[in-house]
Write a structure and sequence with these properties.
This protein is α+β, with helices and mostly antiparallel strands. Helices cover about 35% and strands about 25% of the residues. The protein has eleven helices and eleven strands. It has helices spanning about 5-15, 20-30, 35-45, 80-95, 100-115, 125-130, 145-155, 220-230, 250-255, 285-290, 305-310, and strands at about 50-55, 60, 155-165, 170-185, 185-195, 200-205, 205-215, 240-250, 265-270, 275-280, 300. The strands form three sheets. A five-stranded antiparallel beta sheet has the order 6-5-4-3-7, covered by helices on one side. Strand 5 and strand 6 (about 200-205) form a beta hairpin. The radius of gyration is 26 Å and the shape is extended.
């Protein structure tokens, strides 16, 4: 953990718990007593942090308000995940002026702006300097989202006319909605298909027509949903799982070793500095796209049909 991360962690712990013992700080930060004392001294001397050691209660705390100069963390006072979440929420809210929640949007925007601007950086400057891009997001209007959400929560079936880009076919399905998934900037519906008698995933922008039914939805156990959809690769699922074995060049190894292709992936650095990655898949389409972006720096070892496809 770097120094700036430790400083934010100390600040978070003191604000959250009020009083924090030396042993707790050492355990949370995973540092020596000497490093902890240097961090606390830096916060007091450079950032004006009103940190005091309460001998009676046996721990560190912030002094009462007004006991010293203004204390403020520098620059970005949140971590990368929090920054991404806040800026993403701000961008998403900027496109939600209408609809049922329209009247509630402005207070939410104000709250997020207040959070983003809590440090010494103005929230407008922060949103200007941090951008969230959405490659691969399709321009579907998802007009049926409210009806799908309503049926999902009421546990009712839906009758849909669905266009599948992969096969260029339009079919009619009666489905029992199970859950909505937001994946790579696009919405999908995981559902039990009564026509195919199995679990399927439907892109919301592929639904051409929708009728809400009063028939009760078929419920699928959450563990069964996870097993079915997590066995595949990306948005493509299936019960028949294959394992792809990929060998990346030494030049690409350091990048791929840090990537998360699948929750069940297996990876190992080889003696020649190449990287061996194994990932499960049921439908190869999305996996093929991810493999091809590495060009000649990756070799598909098995299975043979995936190697042939590449």
């Amino acid at each position: 953990m770097q120094e700036i991360e430790r400083i934010y962690k100390i600040d978070q712990l003191l604000h959250a718990r009020g009083l924090v013992s030396t042993q707790t700080l050492l355990a949370e930060l995973e540092v020596s007593i000497a490093t902890l004392k240097r961090d606390l001294a830096y916060m007091r001397d450079r950032l004006n942090a009103p940190i005091v050691f309460d001998r009676e209660r046996g721990g560190y705390r912030f002094a009462a308000s007004g006991e010293g100069p203004r204390y403020e963390l520098p620059g970005l006072w949140f971590n990368e995940a929090e920054a991404a979440a806040l800026v993403t929420m701000a961008e998403l809210l900027s496109g939600l002026d209408g609809g049922l929640i329209g009247p509630h949007i402005q207070p939410l925007r104000a709250r997020i702006d207040a959070i983003l601007g809590k440090g010494e950086v103005d929230s407008r400057e922060l949103k200007k300097r941090i951008r969230i891009t959405s490659p691969g997001a399709r321009r579907g209007n998802n007009a049926f989202f409210p009806a799908i959400g309503h049926a999902l929560m009421r546990r009712k079936r839906l009758h849909i006319h669905y266009y599948a880009r992969g096969t260029d076919e339009t079919t009619e399905r009666t489905v029992s909605p199970q859950r909505l998934i937001f994946y790579r900037q696009n919405w999908y519906l995981d559902a039990w298909c009564h026509v195919r008698q199995g679990l399927r995933s439907f892109a919301l922008d592929g639904i051409l027509k929708l009728d809400a039914l009063e028939d009760s939805a078929e419920d699928v156990d959450e563990s069964e949903l996870d097993n079915f959809f997590s066995g595949g690769y990306g948005i493509f699922s299936g019960s028949k799982v294959h394992w792809a074995k990929l060998r990346f060049s030494a030049a690409r190894a350091k990048w791929v070793a840090a990537e998360r292709w699948h929750s069940q992936q297996r990876g190992k650095l080889q003696k020649d500095a190449s990287y061996l990655l194994e990932v499960p898949y049921s439908d190869p389409r999305e996996l093929i796209g991810d493999i091809l972006r590495h060009g000649a720096e990756v070799d598909v070892l098995e299975p043979a049909e995936l190697r042939t496809a590449i």
